[in-house]
Amino acid sequence: MAGSPEILLRESASEGVAVLRLNRPEARNALSLPLRHALAAAFSELDRDDAVRCVVLAGNGPCFAAGADLREMADLGPAEVQRMNVLETWRAISGSRKPLIAAVHGAALGGGCELAMHADIIVADETASFGQPEVQVGIMPGGGATQRLMRAVGKFRAMPMLLTGLPVDARQALAMGLASEVVPEGQALARACELAAQIARRPPVAIRLIKEVALAGADAPLATGLMLERRAFESLFDTADQKEGMHAFLERRKPTFQGK
Questions:
Q1: Per the domain annotation, does 256 fall within a domain?
Q2: Domain shared by 27 and 73, yes or no
Q3: Most buried of 3, 162, 180, 250 (most Cβ within 10 A)?
Q4: Are residues 37 and 129 both part of a single domain?
Q5: For residue 179, is it within any domain?
Q6: What are the start-end ranges of the H helices in 5-128?
C-alpha cells in the first residue's frame, strides 16, 4: 500500500470492507504532513480498487485524531503553509466515491474533527469529543470546518464551537447532528465495521450514485438535486444489479450483486 505503513495501517475487516487506522498514538494521531500524504494516497488507491465497497477510518491509541501537528506549523509563514498544499490531501478523501464511515473514540479535534466530517457516517463511542480549537492557538480552521460544520449542524450550533474552540461530547454531537449514532465505550470500530459490511453487500453502482447525488444535491437548488436524482435513478435500470435485485426480491431469495 502507498504511504507509510508505520503511521497509517490498512486492514480488511470483512469482504468488501477496508479499514484504515491512523497510527501515531504517541502524538494522539496528530495529522502530520506525512500522515496527510499517506491518507491521500490510501484513499486514491482504495477508490481504484473494485474489491473495496466501503471504507472505515479509525485511530489507534487514546483517540481518533487530536488535530494538526503544531510542531510542524508553529514557526511557519503564510507562503510555507501554502506550499504544504494541505487542501490537495483533503480532496483525495472528499472526492472518494466509496462510502466512508468514521469510527471515533476519544478526541476528534481540529483537523481530526474535519477528517471525521469527511465521512458519510460517524459512529462515536461514549468517550468521543468533537471540536475546532484552532482559535485557542491564534488561527482558524483550515480543513473545511467553517463550511462543513455549518452545513452539518447549522449556524447556531456551529458558531459557538468555532468561536470558543470548546468541544462537545458524544451525546451532544449526536443531538446536534454531528454523529450518526453513539455506542458504548470501545465499540465504535466494531459497529462501524458492521455497518460497512451491510453497505458492502448492497449494489455498488447504486451505492456510488446515492453518495454522488446526495453530496452534489446538498450544494444545489432543490429542483437541480431532484433532477440529478431522477437521472441517476433511471440509469440504474441499465445495470445487471437492478435486474438481480428485483428478481431476487420477487423470487424471495438473497440477491448477489456484482457491481455491473
A1: no
A2: yes
A3: 3
A4: yes
A5: yes
A6: 33-48, 70-73, 78-83, 86-94, 111-117
What value does the mean pLDDT take over residues 145-171?
96
Can you tell me the distance from the alpha carbon of 222 to that of 71, in angstroms, rounded to the nearest whole number?
Answer: 44
**Residue predicted with more confidence, 72 or 162:** 162
Residues 19 and 138 in one domain: yes
Residue carrying C-alpha cell 453502482: 205
Q: Please write the tens of the pLDDT for every residue from 189-230.
A: 999 999 999 999 999 999 999 999 999 999 899 999 999 999
pLDDT for 3 equals: 44
Q: Do 146 and 226 fall into the same domain? A: no
Q: Is residue 255 part of a domain?
A: no
Rounded to two decimals, the pTM is: 0.93
Helical ranges in the chain per DSSP H: 33-48, 70-73, 78-83, 86-94, 111-117, 145-153, 155-164, 170-176, 188-200, 204-218, 222-235, 240-250
